[in-house]
Amino acid sequence: MAAHSGAKLAAYHLILFSLMKVLLTTTSFQDTPGKHQELLNKQDFEVDSLRGPLTEEQLLPIIDQYDALICGDDDLTAPVLEKGKKGRLKYISKYGVGLDRIDLVKAKELGIPVTNCPGVNQVSVSEHVFALLFSFCKNIHLEYNVTKAGGWKRYVNREIFGKTIGIVGLGAIGAEVAKRGAAFGLNVIGYDPYAKPEIAEKYDVKMQETFKDLAAQSDIITLHVPHTPQTEKLINLDLVENTLKPGVIIINTARGKLIDIDAVKLGLEKKIIAGYLADVLDIEPMPENYAMKDWDNVLITPHIGSRTYESVERQGSAAVENLIKMINNH
Prior knowledge:
Elements: H1 2-18, E1 21-24, H2 27-31, H3 35-41, E2 46-49, H4 56-59, E3 68-71, H5 78-86, E4 91-94, H6 104-110, E5 114-115, H7 122-137, H8 140-148, E6 164-168, H9 172-183, E7 187-191, H10 197-202, E8 206-207, H11 211-217, E9 220-223, H12 237-242, E10 248-252, H13 261-269, E11 273-278, E12 298-300, H14 309-329
Parallel strand pairs: 1-2, 1-3, 3-4, 4-5, 6-7, 6-9, 7-8, 9-10, 10-11, 11-12
InterPro entries: D-2-hydroxyacid_DH, D-isomer_2_OHA_DH_cat_dom, D-isomer_DH_CS, D-isomer_DH_CS1, D-isomer_DH_NAD-bd, NAD(P)-bd_dom_sf
Domain D-isomer specific 2-hydroxyacid dehydrogenase catalytic: 35-329
Protein name: Phosphoglycerate dehydrogenase
């Protein structure tokens, strides 16, 4: 009898999954072969793929056609979610960690569950922080172009040993940065009012009372917090003019809106900020006329911090598994 019931349940799930229409927008998932793609292909979903991040204007005409999203940093605004709810939309599985592009209040109000994939990209992103830092301090980004053009101009470089790195946000990524910072001989300080004390103790991070305390001492500031109303323009004009240690390097692999771009430009022009190293921008993809993109003291990568084979497979598999769990629980 139990076996018969199990067979009926399996048949029900097969029918349910085959009726499920899924929109996949994350390009990392699509561009990177691996177990995550195999897992998705096994589910008998009808899957459409578009290359995100998609804007509200792109999503509004189509969102009501799908039961579920496996999304990246698409604009899942209140109007998009309302349009989706009037149609077929039942589940949102976020590939990655950040949820700031999803109107979570509206999703909850409409009864649309949203999941994400914490704890899967900290190694990749923390490695990218130091890839940016070393590329800048050793002028790799400039020397590469010199020798590629057949030249032999030699810049004077910087060491990071003995410098102070200020980590803003001591979550999974921040902790990995702290671990690597200590190994490179950096003095590691941190600011995070929500940090677990044992994390700071484990990695010998000297926690600061305020963000300004951290900013005043740091030779390097690296940002690892979500974008919220409280963290928007964390790097602002007042901080640049009155608090930052002259010659500071600012690294942003978190969210573009954590910085006031005009304040950073001013800081770079006045040499208060020695370098701005970014893997994220306030506008993505980057417009052709984006401010500072040609400046020698700015190093921009196109949101690839977690785009490694290992991390994509972990995140992609987690996103598919989250969707399967939501469907089964429903």
